[in-house]
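Weekend entry, working from home. Most of the wet-lab plans are on hold until the incubator is repaired, so I used the time to fold the two sequences that have been sitting in the queue since the last round of cloning. Logging both here for the record. First:
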Amino acid sequence: MDNHYSSSNWSQLYKFRREISCDYPDPMKIQIVKRPQALLKSYIHNRRTVLEIGAGQRKLKDQLTQLYGEIQYKSFDIDQTNYHDYYDLEKIEGKFQLVCMFEVIEHLSIENAYRTLSRCHKLLESNGLMLITTPNIYYPPAFLRDITHITPWAYDELAGFGKLIGFEVIDIFRLYHDAWHRKIVRRFILHPVHKMLGIDYAKQIAVLFRKP
């Protein structure tokens, strides 16, 4: 697989993006979950070899250990402030059943995102899963408030991008967690206003991919 994105990929990416838009025509109707951990609990069964991209303080290891017991966890990050197993994407070794990338892809250029996801695809075992979260562009402050954000990813763009690389899209989610009274107001009382304005209250989206 070529791990370089170029303008020649555009027509195929557009095709995949349109397919996703047909499957998920209304961004406000995409199902809501509280946190990525809820998806891990629902979907990630018996996948004990895990790679986290942009792992930060490696909190995912503790969360997965609480859910499943002993796991084989490896982390990658370019920031050497914290310990990580790898600081160079190309030096990651082995195969993994699960790859997670939480709030990372928006910090990458399109070319770097293509290279990173292509590398993750290669590192996954067959039938392995990849979970990516990113700010929801329909909730503008989630992306705009951080100067280090480079690329905004709409849900259809991200899912189509994964298909371009060779992933299958299992499902797409909106992530939203708030105090119960604000949740009721936003989800049930103000929903028509949000829909009319095209501005969501869910701050992140998540896409779950599978390697065939």
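Second, folded right after the first finished:
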Amino acid sequence: MSNQPVQTVTTSADKAKLVLAGTAVVAGVVGFYALAGQSTLIRAAALVGGLVLAIAFAWTSYQGRAFIGFASESVKETKKVVWPSRREAMQITGVVFGFVLVMALFLWGTDKLLELVLYGLILGWR
């Protein structure tokens, strides 16, 4: 049994939708800056309008629907996670800090020992 990757062929309509989505984002940002003399509400409306239009274009493409499916599956998986209690989180954090402290002392000691051996005994610089 072979595990060949499945390649999805995107149609030119999907590619055009994604290009339109990108164009809508750029138009929203350009509109935001082009309306610099207007009120903030109008500028924000231009930006949000461009983003909403881009989302609408992207949503209708195959890649957009696949992304929405992926996002919803990710949310479902996140809900399955068993999060530690506050006490467990504090204990794990304490263990991590303790390990970091022990490793820091070990590395400091190793550095000082190598410094003594290399500079003091081998090179005689001290």
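Plan for Monday: verify the second prediction. The chain has four helices and no strands.
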